[in-house]
Structure formats: structure tokens, C-alpha cells
Amino acid sequence: MENKLILINQSHLTITGIKKAAALSENSLTLQLENQTLNVLGSGMEVKKLDVEAGVLEVGGKISSIKYVGPKEKVGLVKRIFK
Fold this sequence. Notes:
Layout: E1 4-8, E2 12-16, E3 20-24, E4 28-32, E5 37-51, E6 56-69, H1 77-81
Antiparallel strand pairs: 1-2, 2-6, 3-4, 4-5, 5-6
């Protein structure tokens, strides 16, 4: 599924391609995408539209940070010992 972000004047954010809204609050959003997680930080954020079936989320408020986080890589015991 394709992922698209549209940010207008740091106050309106539209995100497509979401699989799950893991956490939603006034100051942060954690969204599950296909193979990664999207973290959005801000203040006074409120969900305007959430359609998980279509994979669309619209948020209003002050958006200050958007960060993609990839899947965690499993590290074996030998790699941890011999860093």
C-alpha cells in the first residue's frame, strides 16, 4: 500500500497508507504502516478523520515532528558481545 503525507502550514496533516492507529493523543500519534511505524509529534492535535479500512487519517493542530521508524533488527548474542 502506498504511503503519502500532506502537511499544510504545520496545522493540517493528511496521511494515507496506514494499517493501524497504535496510539493517539493531543501531543503524539503512533501509526503502523506497511513495514514501518510513523511517529508524529505536536500540540493540540485532534483527529479530524480516521478511516482505517481506506488507510486515511486527517489531523489538525500544531505539527512539529514527523519521523519514520523502520522495523527493529534482531541482533544475535554473538553480535552484541563483539560490538
